[in-house]
User: Fold these one by one.
Assistant:
Number 1:
Amino acid sequence: MTAAELIATAAFKSGVYSQAFPAFGVERRGAPVQAFVRFSDEKVRLRSQIYEPDYIVVQDSSLIADVDVFSGLKAGGIALVNTENGNFEGVPEGVKLITIDATSLALEILGLPITNTTLMGAFAAATGEIELESLEEALRERFSGSLAEKNIAAARRAYELVKEGGQ
Amino acid sequence: MTAAELIATAAFKSGVYSQAFPAFGVERRGAPVQAFVRFSDEKVRLRSQIYEPDYIVVQDSSLIADVDVFSGLKAGGIALVNTENGNFEGVPEGVKLITIDATSLALEILGLPITNTTLMGAFAAATGEIELESLEEALRERFSGSLAEKNIAAARRAYELVKEGGQ
Amino acid sequence: MMQIMEGSHAVAEAAKLCRPEVVSAYPITPQTHIVERLAEMVADGELDAEYLCVESELSALSVCLGSSAAGSRVYSATSSQGGLMLMAEVVFNVAGMRQPIVMSIANRALGAPLSIWNDQQDSISLRDAGWFHLYGEDVQEMTDQHFIAYKAAEQHDVLLPGFVCFDGFILSHTYEPVDIPTQEEIDAFLPPYVPYNKLDAKAPISMGMYAPPPDYYMEFRHETDQALQRAGAAISAAGKEFGEMFGRDYSGHTESYRMDDADVAFVALGSLCGTVKDAIDEMRADGIKAGLVKIRTFRPFPATEIARALAGVPKVAVLEKNISLGSAMKGAVGPEVKDAVTGTGIDVYSYVLGLGGRDIRKKDIRAIAALAEKGVGNTFYGLRTEVL
Amino acid sequence: MMQIMEGSHAVAEAAKLCRPEVVSAYPITPQTHIVERLAEMVADGELDAEYLCVESELSALSVCLGSSAAGSRVYSATSSQGGLMLMAEVVFNVAGMRQPIVMSIANRALGAPLSIWNDQQDSISLRDAGWFHLYGEDVQEMTDQHFIAYKAAEQHDVLLPGFVCFDGFILSHTYEPVDIPTQEEIDAFLPPYVPYNKLDAKAPISMGMYAPPPDYYMEFRHETDQALQRAGAAISAAGKEFGEMFGRDYSGHTESYRMDDADVAFVALGSLCGTVKDAIDEMRADGIKAGLVKIRTFRPFPATEIARALAGVPKVAVLEKNISLGSAMKGAVGPEVKDAVTGTGIDVYSYVLGLGGRDIRKKDIRAIAALAEKGVGNTFYGLRTEVL
Amino acid sequence: MVDKSLELFDCGHRACGGCGPALLARLILKGTGENVIVVASTGCMEVFSTPYPETAWKVPWIHSLFENAAAVASGVEASLKHNNRTEKVVCICGDGATFDIGMLCISGAFERGHDITYICYDNEAYMNTGIQRSGATPYDASTTTSPAGRLSTGNSLPKKDLPPQILNAHGASYVATASVAYPMDVMKKVEKAVNTPGACYIQVHTPPCSTGWGGFDGSKTIEIAKQAIECGLWVNYEMENGELTAAKKVRRIPVETYLKAQKRFRHLFKPQAVTEEIAKIQAIADANAKKYGIDIERNE
Amino acid sequence: MVDKSLELFDCGHRACGGCGPALLARLILKGTGENVIVVASTGCMEVFSTPYPETAWKVPWIHSLFENAAAVASGVEASLKHNNRTEKVVCICGDGATFDIGMLCISGAFERGHDITYICYDNEAYMNTGIQRSGATPYDASTTTSPAGRLSTGNSLPKKDLPPQILNAHGASYVATASVAYPMDVMKKVEKAVNTPGACYIQVHTPPCSTGWGGFDGSKTIEIAKQAIECGLWVNYEMENGELTAAKKVRRIPVETYLKAQKRFRHLFKPQAVTEEIAKIQAIADANAKKYGIDIERNE
Amino acid sequence: MALRIGCAAAPGRAQDNKTGSWRVFMPVVDMEKCILCGTCVLICPETAVSDKDGQILFDLDFCKGCGVCARECRAEAITMIQEEK
Amino acid sequence: MALRIGCAAAPGRAQDNKTGSWRVFMPVVDMEKCILCGTCVLICPETAVSDKDGQILFDLDFCKGCGVCARECRAEAITMIQEEK
Ligand SMILES: Cc1ncc(C[n+]2csc(CCOP(=O)(O)OP(=O)(O)O)c2C)c(N)n1
Ligand SMILES: Cc1ncc(C[n+]2csc(CCOP(=O)(O)OP(=O)(O)O)c2C)c(N)n1
Ligand code: SF4
Ligand code: SF4
Ligand code: SF4
Ligand code: SF4
Ligand code: SF4
Ligand code: SF4
Ligand SMILES: [Mg+2]
Ligand SMILES: [Mg+2]
């Protein structure tokens, strides 16, 4: 389950209409990929890609060197970046940068460097767009047993970290 | 080379435009088949089947019992029938019936019961539409050596028989 | 129940609910998630069907033909050149043999060059073949169309196969909310398949005979065309009944959006319609009176309905995710729309856009409206001139 | 030299005179006599070509693609469902790969039901695929079109494959006079093939790459469409040059017959035109002012030429040996003709006739003129109502 | 045992007089009995037996295309299986449909292991379309697409060794060859195949397509078929799960006798005998004899 | 001998890290040298190496469709032959393209006996489209179209025995198997094949499609490939004109070691070991060992 | 007659096509010689031979006159004769 | 840039795609241990290893960090390390 699907599901659980889709590429494992989410109180009809997002989430900060990940981000938007250290160039003006070391967190709690759930916890906190409960519900639906609990713990920890002031 | 092609070739050799085509069936060997020829001083453009022929040639008279071979034959038209005996029902009024025992003739001259060339000789004589020379030329082009000569002999003999008064 | 899921999975759920006895398909992007999900369902015993994982599309549809002829309801899914074009001969054959097979098409471009991305060239290129064609705008619609397709196809005055088409990736790989009916509901809507003719040793018949010389062929083609016209009515009736049961009405072969006083109308098929609707709202807000006629049933072509919907609109822009190479209008839908409005003085233009996954944005739709106003059309829209 | 021969043999002679290096085809009625004759020529050393007798049509055209990509001029011939439809995927592919292959099509119906007889459903159904389509009226014309096809296809601003279509049996199996040029003449008309791109270890390139995400695909399709438009000009130029050398001019994509003051015009393709011309002469003799616009080049569609030819004619009857099942006009050509005369007030009707070998007579043509006069059209003509 | 007197293939069909495939159709249905569904490919048999509305088949029969009978049969079988129906599924297809264009669907069906019997009627060319070469056409036979000529002695490739190796490799349960020369053997093998679970294959020599082979009249259908066996160019054998279990033994005659009777080999004898080519064909028969051990030893 | 240092497959391609087929592409071109024309089928290798305009191929390369590479290659070869050109023609196709959908064109090309070398890179599933089952997928492997589940232990069919039986039956001159585990052997066999007249076939195990097999990372590409050979589930051998001429001998390890490393077999071990299924797989390895005589005897 | 959907038909009509008209030679049996072995009944491609009450009968509506029965009769009991129609 | 007819291209552009950016771990060689056997050069799927003047060099523009070289080096001369980009 990609992060985008996770956000969409959590949003859906919060009673919001949502749409998630990847930027359909042929990339092989290892190459950078992109996905989009829209949510709205009304049914989402638009099908084009997203050029001016309100939020961006960067799962691998090393990409920032190669790709202009912040491009199009609206003024007042939020960029959530998974990174160990917190300085990047090219963050547009008026954009709020929130960083979190999701990899370490995931390794610590899940034992794997899989950052989807951690980042989604952070996303919930940073944007207020999805509720932590909905995210937990989505995770519980998706994973079973202890795996669900671990993922929820990771998401919750990230949520708290960001709420506490991020970084 | 079917009889129809033979007539068309001979007509072509006589300087007349001609068109020959089979009634395209899926019949296997043994089943009755049908072919058409048109000739004209001008280019033949019409492509429909022939419903009202000027002449008909019946290669196997036993068909006459099963199929209405004379259907559509114009008044004043000629029906040339390969047969041993000469009485048929259903020959429309005003039609000239010419019979010839082409099978025996072919057996005699070619040694095979293949009646195409024989009948064409008869056709030339009966209708005057193609010249014997053109027919011979067509045969010479198609067959080589003694086979050509035999076929020519068969055609010529039939031609003479019909000229002499038929039957 | 409302759920959020990937388009492909919703289609797989729909297929399952229709209780096919035999499923046969061959993987091709972007259809793969559908057949993978069905394989899982069979492996887990959720779906009691024979699942035939075949060696090619040629076999996939041929297997379906055999099972259908033997009396089973069958399901298949494919896409694109490899998929639909490799089975093209079978596609024509199935229609002539009047087997009510339903096949999902995750629409994709045709090569060369190879492109796995979306346009609608694949199903459009088989518009002569005798299948009915339904196009869905969103995951909900394309899901529901499967139920309607089986219901219409299996009517004894129809007995024809149908495509349920939806844009590859854009819908097949999108995750969005969808209401999936329950098995009980679908059982109530779609009764078991009752074959009209079937292979059965107890009542032997010969199927797929040849039409000897010129005696019958033309009449059989005529009869197929008539049945396809009747499919139109059957789709409409099934769509209406569906609406009554589930609250989502599909009785129309087209859907009109803000057409009331439109000065310019778009005609489009599939997922693009959503973007067009949003663009129309924007344009309307800016005082441009635009509207949309969405084609849901493309075969049989709903000419009368389209003519009615477009009546009085001066300019019509047909948005085409296909090209009939070397034709004058370029798009394949344009000439048929034009024919539908013959003699009305309406100007109809085709715009070829979104081929091979080229993204289409609201601003593109607005730009096309402007072109139509100016009388510029029958052209590609959105070329990257820098690479030409 | 004027000779009398079967249409298929004339085509084989034409193919031979074009000096293909590789010939690959698979037998299918009514194309067989062509390939059989070519096999004989190779067996007898009359034609110095690699003759590949393959296991299916899928391979036949794929072999041609490979040889063409390696730099050879190639030839193929096919027909119908089995033939053309089984290779449909390759047909699209070859156009996108821009290989100037010439393939003869002995036009035949598509099944089910199986019919080996003539109509034009096969090539018409692939009208989107990017090949140019030439249709011959008689053995002479279809023979000559092969020379023109190679010449046009191989122009470096074209580089597209082409069909040379002629009615199966009606032309392929008819024996009639035809002027076959000499080898010297054809060598003078058609220079050796100079590939633009080829597989060559001395200058390696990659052919048939895929068009990554949505960056290039649409532009390649556009470029193919442009090249197909240019093919129109190349066909016309080659037809003109041919006329200068051989006295038979084919510069027009259409041919008008007694159109001058016509009240009703027929539009038709292929052998039917001969019958129509005779019918027109009869009608004219009876005071009915009828005329014919024969379409020789169907792709690219010569819309402007058609519009010019039909200008001022009140009623147009498009005679269609095909059906786009479920479409409103029924015939596939009708909507394009209608589009060509947009805004002129000309009434255009399609008549589906002659499917699966149904014979068409002069009286049928006259009857259709009468229907067109009455405004009755977009219908089948000539059904045997007694079997319906 | 099925009722051998059942006539399930009707007269009135349009095959040439003396057609081997027509006779085979009768024999097959005697072997299967009436609880069968036949799947046909496009070809002579399909055409001569089913011009609408005159079908000669008194059992359920379906034809779709030239190349896909094995897949259609797979679908039929899947449907029957799902519904616990008992009909046997039998494909009857020409050699062209089998050796050439049908290979894809056959390979798939045999790999999947459907419970079907696939019978190839082998008249050694595409008869329906006018005697073109197939993968089953024997070496040096002249056909319209492998004509003998100045640079050619006819078909340059040997008859493809389809059944034993290829279909066994795909896991066929039962593979057999038969010939219309031995009608009871045909019936027996068909009966065995339809009663063997899994995908089975029988290839039946129906040579006496006198039209396609030429040089003899339809009355010699069976005679010529026998000669093919007697000279060793055709071997009747059975294989079960890949192992050879039976092969008909013969006292072999030279291949010339067989070849000479047929027009498709005439160029090997006229204007003069092409001895090296005839020797090559003899070598094929010799190799067959060795491979299948069909020679009756002198003291047998 | 060709220059082994030539690099004819460029870097910058988009394969997963540690991709076996990517490595194979390099090795093949080292075996052929630059006087070659490559014909590809649709699949992972085609996609990762040729996104327009960035081709990784420094030799002539052509791709048409998924199913027709053997026919395209036949055409290329015919053209070369006609013009006395010297390039070698090599198909490089996936196992799906080879075992399944390409069977028709392959059968035709091998029957016609073109002078081509057909190399199948066998990663044992359709990787390009997301790991669906092919005819080369081993028994019990879980793929997206043969998933393990409540009623299923994965792929229910054995890996199809394509090369030895089927292609030899078609008259292949040279048939060999190889593995990226032994790069020099691959190069040697490729070189031999392209220099052998007639149609040749090499099937190369490129297992370590870590994406498709799962459970290990890309660094183990070669290690896993070696295990396949060591346990006897993959045998490296050569056949010339239908006769086995060489097979790599091993001291066999149990199949478990190999299976356990891979996610696609995980269901055989979790939640608990499905011993009878593992035993069946062991039996396949044992049968291979016997058939090809690969076991090193104790005293060897 | 309504067309059957999908170009399908039930058996029964094949016999409308009386293939006896194709015949040139006609089989006649000499029951003196006949040993009633049944071969001719089994091998006639037209199902035109039957064995009824110890008599070999030819169905001349369908017999195409191919001569297979005559040639394969080991008792040489069948002769093909030129037929006067 | 004009599109090449038929979606064809000459070699040379593949290297535009710097796959080094995919890398997470980076190979480093210990030339003390290296026996210059050439294995790593032969088996790198990215052609990213070369042997120049007795030195093993990694082309970090293309090395995807897959670790095959490290695992297959029988001298254990190559280590994959976490890279700071
Ligand atoms: C006719 C056709 N059917 C399906 C596809 C989709 N498709 C493309 S590649 C592929 C699988 C390739 O598998 P394989 O040959 O094993 O190569 P791999 O991807 O494993 O390298 C499929 C199913 C296609 N391109 N064409
Ligand atoms: C795809 C396709 N290609 C070609 C044909 C034309 N065709 C029909 S039957 C036939 C030959 C049949 O040969 P075989 O299977 O040996 O049967 P036979 O006619 O000899 O009985 C051919 C080439 C077709 N129907 N479909
Ligand atoms: S051509 Fe041969 S197979 Fe066809 S009907 Fe005649 S004898 Fe039978
Ligand atoms: S999926 Fe497998 S074959 Fe494809 S690039 Fe990745 S490792 Fe290579
Ligand atoms: S084959 Fe001869 S002996 Fe036998 S039943 Fe017939 S006629 Fe009598
Ligand atoms: S002659 Fe032929 S058709 Fe007539 S009965 Fe004898 S075998 Fe039958
Ligand atoms: S594999 Fe190891 S030992 Fe061999 S050259 Fe490379 S680094 Fe040196
Ligand atoms: S880590 Fe992988 S890509 Fe990098 S040099 Fe080693 S083998 Fe090559
Ligand atoms: Mg045959
Ligand atoms: Mg693979």
Note: Residues A 28-29; F 15-16, 19, 21-22, 44, 48, 123, 127, 209-212 surround iron/sulfur cluster (ligand 4) (CB under 6 Å).
Number 2:
Amino acid sequence: MDLNYSAEEAAFRDEVRAWLSASLPLDLRQKVSSYAHLSKDDLMRWHRILAEKGWVAPAWPKEWGGTGWNLVQRYIFEEELGYAGAPPLIPFGLAMCAPVLLRFGTEAQKQRFLPRIYRGEDFWCQGYSEPGSGSDLASLKTKAVRQKDFYVVNGQKIWTTLAHYADWIFCLVRTDPNTGRRQEGISFLLMDMKAPGVTLRPLVLMDGAHEVNEVFFDDVKVPVENRVHEEGQGWTVAKYLLGYERMNTGRIGESKRQLAKLKEYSSSLKNDLRFRDRLSRLEVELMALEITNLRFLDRMRRTGQPPGADVSMLKIKGTEIQQMLTELMMQATDPAASDDFSVAVRKKYLSMRKTTIYAGSNEIQRNIIAKMTLGL
Amino acid sequence: MDLNYSAEEAAFRDEVRAWLSASLPLDLRQKVSSYAHLSKDDLMRWHRILAEKGWVAPAWPKEWGGTGWNLVQRYIFEEELGYAGAPPLIPFGLAMCAPVLLRFGTEAQKQRFLPRIYRGEDFWCQGYSEPGSGSDLASLKTKAVRQKDFYVVNGQKIWTTLAHYADWIFCLVRTDPNTGRRQEGISFLLMDMKAPGVTLRPLVLMDGAHEVNEVFFDDVKVPVENRVHEEGQGWTVAKYLLGYERMNTGRIGESKRQLAKLKEYSSSLKNDLRFRDRLSRLEVELMALEITNLRFLDRMRRTGQPPGADVSMLKIKGTEIQQMLTELMMQATDPAASDDFSVAVRKKYLSMRKTTIYAGSNEIQRNIIAKMTLGL
Amino acid sequence: MNFDYNEEQQLLADSVRRFLAKDYGFEARKKIVASAQGYSPQVWATFAQMGLTGLPFPAEFGGFGGGAIDLVNVMEAFGEALVVEPYLPTLMAGRAIARSPLAKSVLPAVIEGRMKLAFAHIEKGARYDLSKISTTARKSGDAWLLQGEKSAVLGAPMADKLVVSARTQNGIELFLVEKERVKALTTLDEMRAAELTLKATKAEPLGGDLELVEEITDFASALACAEAVGAMKFACDTTLEYLKTRKQFGVPIGTFQALQHRMVDMFIAQEQARSMACLACSKVDQSENAKQRARAVSAAKIKIADNARHVSQESVQLHGGMGMSEELKVSHTFRRLTVIAGQFGDADHHLARFAAL
Amino acid sequence: MNFDYNEEQQLLADSVRRFLAKDYGFEARKKIVASAQGYSPQVWATFAQMGLTGLPFPAEFGGFGGGAIDLVNVMEAFGEALVVEPYLPTLMAGRAIARSPLAKSVLPAVIEGRMKLAFAHIEKGARYDLSKISTTARKSGDAWLLQGEKSAVLGAPMADKLVVSARTQNGIELFLVEKERVKALTTLDEMRAAELTLKATKAEPLGGDLELVEEITDFASALACAEAVGAMKFACDTTLEYLKTRKQFGVPIGTFQALQHRMVDMFIAQEQARSMACLACSKVDQSENAKQRARAVSAAKIKIADNARHVSQESVQLHGGMGMSEELKVSHTFRRLTVIAGQFGDADHHLARFAAL
């Protein structure tokens, strides 16, 4: 047992770190660090810098632009991005639509969409959640009726992150309303956000930010060639994506950066035992989560098996840590201060409440562990 | 709104306190205070002192020995007993069997049992729980078959507190195994512990103490006149007892005494901020619970309604406080010490884990509040 | 012992609740928050008509001589409705004025609702230490002049006069200042506050000392506790309602036991907080014992801070995505509970104070 | 990076687990605990045969030169089985001897299983402060004589020799003492310990200093963390089993969602604790950096203390009445986890140390 990175792994990390240090634009780094709003331009600028370097989609097959890195290298890379304070790589194209196309797409679909995703020419969003179907995904109601070479789509999606930036949306829709199991009769469609009949309504969140949307479909025509996999096999596609191996569910690198920042920012409280104890416990929890994450990674490497329900644990602990980081940061602000950073920190505390709700609420994650890992 | 006791209430409290100060034997007080084992003699000695004073059963009707005190006086009395460090009044006779007899018993049953309970001549225990039927009381299996003037009882009870001291046990038994609802066909029997066929097995708990037992019934003959209420109506009796108004579920007085003792005992840690904060939070929780308890009491007084599901809240918070008191007491002991008191404190921590389990586990209490108070 | 409200208290609370239900719904409040002034003059006038602006002031100036205990129910109603009008700042400043020679000339206007006040004490870097202020007052001829900066002065943008604390050779004293234009801020919980820069600002002396500032802050803290209980009540009620109506997997999510137990814990947290708010309000009215008062207020603040955090976080979590939306009142209640948990001192501050008493 | 055990580690752990499963079941352990000696000489002999008593000692004395990391899996197995044999005390004292001139004459007997040791350092009133000792050593002619009292000396009743710390003019030094008769105690977790009274007790000097005591304590702490993880594993496994088999209202109680979620939190607590135990064991083997070692050990002890409390309390609670019974192993695991949470310093102590580093 050796908890340290091997010489090769350490060298790789140093290479990534050095490149990030030189290539991550200072203004973007500062925006991230000060919890400032990141515009679409900010996001895509960073996407293109990584694409140019050839590092924007490490997990893809080499022929489509992947790097050929092993699991540990990919993990290191993702954690270094977070640690450096890089803008997030929006996953809907790179890490959700692309793996689906690579696994289920036709050659034409791959040729058409993958290069544009890689180069950041198309911005994607994800059309899963619907009003009334949060964690209960299979209860979705958006209908797609086949008419010759088209599907005509009617319905509504909700909580659609960055739909207002998006060129395309991938959607689960119901193509057959008369099946026995609710998981049947669902199909996976790629839809042009500029198509007639697609409208948006912003959903402003607690912190006042516009990040998510409602998306309405009124008789939207979708060419049949934009369906991925067989008609009625959408659930298979969705399940594949849910099980798709993710390295950085715990967001350790990002949290390490936040912790370092918090320590620096709260230095005037270093003699405040109560605050310091909360900080220490948080740091310990993060140390533990990093080792836990590495242990799971190591097991994946050894067994070649996908991570399974363990990822739920990383989601639960990772988001709890992220929330606690912003809560302590808020406590560290002078309650009488109203400068931009203090205000941004308090809003960040509001905003981060979403992390234990989205991407499968932590309650759902506990259900998953109870069922899949513990057999309850 | 006035949170202070009225002059009359305060005078009553002072009277009780003065009497306790004069009448509670020092050796008993010291045993309680040092977490020592209380023998049957200890318990009954105190019972008889109270009986002599006429204060052993305040809630009973005056004709049977009750004091005629109002709700607040009864509450004050019970809390003062706890605050003074008096041995507990074992409730099985005084507060369980007796109310049942008063409500459902025949005149003969009352005449036969109540005076002996009052004077402490009979020690009672409670035969409810069975293996496999903890919180699910209605699943009980102990059978009573009618043969002329007798029931023949076969079966087993578990967790029977102080059965090894007891002369009598009141039991829920199944007299009709063929009913539709499981709550039907149950009867309430008074059984002589010395009857042939009754055997005991001690169940030693985590702290090494013998407090509870398994009780086995092998063809035990119970005269029909020892059945309380109609045959098959045992569930009605049990439900009445569950809803029977209890004043001191929160055990505020007892916890206040423990808190005072903890403060004194942990005085060497008074500069230990971490310990002190836990102590402060505990004290605040107890202050809050006392007011909450008084609020419920006040509402009972005003509305004349039994307390209902609110009592569950007092049970939950009260037991959490009791456990935390012993946990902090354990933390306050010198880890290197092995004197009798340090050892007793640590065992008390073990022993107190039972409080969130017994008398309707805190999980069951939460179920009750969810259903009865919140309508979930 | 008697937890009943008396008839007057009950009547007042009922009329406040009726008014808020009718004219201070979530949509009405949204407009008030978005308005330039950040409060509603009509609402303020109604408060005055109901006697709220006079309630805790002495009868000799036109008030009703009430105490915190008479306001428990009102503050709970304010908390439920998320009232943003500068009631607490006005009471705090008014309480200082009531003890001063200026009471007779100033208070009647306050009581009649013609004048709103703010209490400018806290400065940057003091955190919750009331003794840490560096604003100074010096006498120049007959006039007093103030010099310094005050921060996060709640209600200052809409106030007509400000009570400002400053150091003199006697220690800390209070002064009355005419409100000039200030840089208004919106707080995290959608109230208005301001930074205050005093540059040889003319002021009238009110007397007072640090003890008075502490007494005023304890009084306001106790009322804020009651307000927090109201906000918790809304958070609990609306979450319970959501659990009963929102369906997943074909059944209301309130049938899931894990959520039931968490709802029960929220409910208990609310009841325990209510008990402590009652205690604090009752003790601030018994002014003869400053230590007992401070102990009760700090105890209440500890419980309210802990439980406000618990209830607010759970109320949003159990709402799922909907809890994050600005369109639901529960997210605004979250903001209010977040702020109120730290108002006049967070749990850490009051743990230190409680243990020291 | 590699979390795999190597072949030797795996083989050793497998054989230890096989042995414990066969000869150290709950009933067998009960007999050992109840025996006069409080440990099993046969079990100790088997440990020696397996190489456990030699594993962490240098090869030059007959050991295998292993580190804490080689013992992680073994200690987990010990924790699961609630082993009461004085393994940790023997390793601690042996570690002191290994650095001394007496190593050659004493260690071989320890390694071969012919000698058990105890480490007498802690005194009453020191709580967890390793520097707070008042036992003294003075030279009288050629001999060293010790004077003082040591408390809660784990394993002392069955030890053949004791390593005792005492103050000299150089600060704290260590000494070897022949074990005479001691007053044996049974600890809360059913191990044997003793109070030690030293009255001009003859002792052989081992050298060493406070830093060595700290290093030895950190080494033992890291192993105790691994042991705690094993105890947590048993608590989790047996609770999960209970949830699956125990029925209420006609269904296994494991179908109740509130209990499921609490079981999940126990499981996560165990996994997080395991990660920290690995980290601590890995860092105590990298002796070049004392600060890094201490930081990792304190971090691990914080997590293990918090999670041992959480897991132990929940394991009993979810068992209901059965969890309270002496007849179920889970109640003994509760006792062990309660003790181990404070062993070598509780969470408070290590929070202070962690923040100071």
Note: Residues 117-208 of chain C form a domain with the Butyryl-CoA Dehydrogenase, subunit A; domain 2 fold (CATH 2.40.110.10).
